[in-house]
Prior knowledge:
The chain has 472 residues and is mainly β. The protein has helices spanning 2-8, 158-172, 326-333, 457-461; strands at residues 15-28, 33-39, 48-51, 55-62, 71-73, 97-103, 108-113, 126-131, 141-150, 201-202, 207-208, 216-219, 229-231, 237-244, 251-254, 260-265, 268-275, 277-280, 285-291, 297-303, 308-315, 337-339, 358-365, 374-375, 386-388, 393-400, 406-410, 415-419, 422-427, 429-432, 437-443, 449-454, 465-470.
Amino acid sequence: MAAAERDRRTATTRTTSTVLNAGISDVDLGGVPVTTWTYNGELPGTEIRIKRGDALRARLSNGLPQPTTVHWHGLALRNDMDGVPVLTQPEVAPGAEFIYEFVAPDAGTHWFHPHVGAQLDRGLYAPLIVEDPADGADYDSELVVVLDDWLDGLDRDPDTALANLKKNGMVMGDRSAPHMAGMPGMDHGPVDGDTGMGMPQSALLGGDAGDVVYPHVLVNGRISSAPRSVNAKPGQRIRLRLINAASDTAFRVGVPGIPLRVTHTDGFPVVPKQADTVLLGMGERLDAVITVPDRTVPVLALAEGRGSYAQLLIRSGRESDPTASDAAAQQLAALPALATGDLRATEEVSLPKRSPDVTHNLVLEGPGAKYEWTINGKAYRPDDGLPIRAEQRVRLRFENKSTMFHPMHVHGHTFQLIGPNGRGPRKDTAIVLPGKTLEVDFDANNPGQWLTHCHNVYHGEAGMMTVLSYVE
Length: 472
């Protein structure tokens, strides 16, 4: 572990220092006041931006009533800085501090969040942008867009939602949630029913679209009726850095009438591809360049299968009334969506062709009678994992035997999707659809104990996690 970190450092490695005060804050979602947990009182937390190869030193001060940690999602960092309780570090107790310090070896759109219980489903998340000095030739400016689903501080909190799921199981669904009206004209399945069909549904996601009903969805901390806005000029090329920080919601994102030129996913470049909309599972990121028209346009984030949306406005040239975006959202929902698995990595970031030295099957199942989600028939235990060895080419074969999609995330490494159309994108999080199998390869080049789990927070906390364990 220490040797791997030394290899990441160079004579030019610079260190950026920051402080993360995790605490209870009053936040305005846009006319909807809530009390939640945040970093430094902001929602999302203040963006951290460093350059590839630089080090980050972050002092976490825990002002919460629970222990917490910070996980740096998407970074192949040193294992003892990965933020997984018990597995890589002790929990940071209320009133205590912990210093995270590591080198960021790969550029890209990343983010950070806690890895204790369902804390992510509060306001504890923020972007981490690792810049590539070579970027910028094909765009003029950047815009970070963070997507989220929201319930904390309203009718219940995430701990209550998780307890209800475990108490009632999926036959009853998340019974503490209020009924919600769908957006006019959009597909919105029944909610909180007394049968297995009681939760949101999506053909794009292969069936169940979520387990928890949310009063709101957000873009950069705001509901759709009170969106944030940025000013731009007609013809300006903006790189959108999209981050799905939600706990239970996939988003379909697009700009009505403006094509997206997709350039990266999970931080790694792809062969550019044009799309009307893109689908992002929880934990996934995607970068796309748009050209600003001479009118105000919304960046729309449709909560897939839920009949709701949030937005961010790009104001340019002629003004209009983009806040009344129901019609635009309905039109966007009817367009095909590009899934990140349909992309192809550029040659320079593709893994060298090589047969796997070891293949691990990960069978995804659930929910059980009391909302148990499992991998290979077992719920998570930090001391029970899948053995790998340094320098191996490892293949993970995710087989989804459940009726819900699972965005599977591997800590400490990036993998490459293997599919019928050849070698896919480099990623760290990828959707496995119901009844489908997804194969990914990675090189075992970062020693340690690495969590692998579903990034639906409720699935993970109900057991759908395992460990990739380096052995001698």
